[in-house]
């Protein structure tokens, strides 16, 4: 195979760090507030042969993370409502990261978040196609409605 017949998918892999604290809750349990240095690794696809100034990506992502630096995440939106678990951090930040990267001319395809060298959570990102079916929230709502109807029917039969 000739090397001039090769095609490349080009990506940047950039890492960002967030120093902050959080605590976890589970029902009435409230854990200790403790610090982390979370690491976020973004895979950004770029098209064609054009040069991309990746500092634009970096500045945009830094701006997304800045409001959370050195804070207790549980006191900052959306984590004052959504528990600041590793999974929720990655999924919530991925939404903002996606908008920043797209505006700068890239395509965010993966976000990884780590709270320790041994613990990483990752999401692969695909824009939702129009009329592509129900969202996860739709499925949760539908399943909940069906379960509620089944429980109500069982209660009626038990009377």
UniProtKB/TrEMBL annotation:
This enzyme's EC code(s): 4.1.2.50
One Pfam entry name: PTPS
Catalytic activity: 7,8-dihydroneopterin 3'-triphosphate + H2O = 6-carboxy-5,6,7,8-tetrahydropterin + triphosphate + acetaldehyde + 2 H(+)
Pathways involved: Purine metabolism; 7-cyano-7-deazaguanine biosynthesis
InterPro entries, per database record: 6-PTP_synth-rel_bac, 6-PTP_synth/QueD, 6-PTP_synth/QueD_sf
Enzyme class: lyase
Database matches in NCBIfam families: 6_pyr_pter_rel (TIGR03112)
Protein family per UniProt: Belongs to the PTPS family. QueD subfamily.
Name by which UniProt lists this protein: 6-carboxy-5,6,7,8-tetrahydropterin synthase
Native organism taxonomy: Bacteria, Bacillati, Actinomycetota, Coriobacteriia, Coriobacteriales
């Amino acid at each position: 195979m000739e090397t001039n017949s090769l095609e490349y998918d080009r990506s940047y892999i950039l890492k960002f760090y967030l120093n902050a604290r959080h605590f976890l809750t589970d029902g009435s349990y409230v854990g200790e507030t403790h610090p982390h240095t979370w690491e976020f690794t973004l895979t950004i696809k770029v098209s064609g042969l054009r040069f991309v100034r990746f500092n634009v990506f970096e500045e945009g992502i830094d701006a997304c993370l800045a409001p959370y630096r050195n804070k207790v995440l549980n006191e900052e939106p959306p984590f004052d409502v959504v528990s600041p678990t590793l999974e929720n951090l990655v999924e919530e930040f991925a939404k903002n990261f996606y908008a920043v990267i797209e505006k700068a001319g890239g395509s965010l395809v993966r976000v990884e978040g780590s709270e320790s060298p041994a613990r990483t959570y990752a999401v692969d990102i695909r824009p939702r196609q129009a009329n592509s079916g129900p969202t996860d929230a739709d499925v949760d709502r539908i399943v909940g409605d069906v379960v509620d109807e089944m429980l109500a029917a069982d209660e009626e039969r038990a009377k």
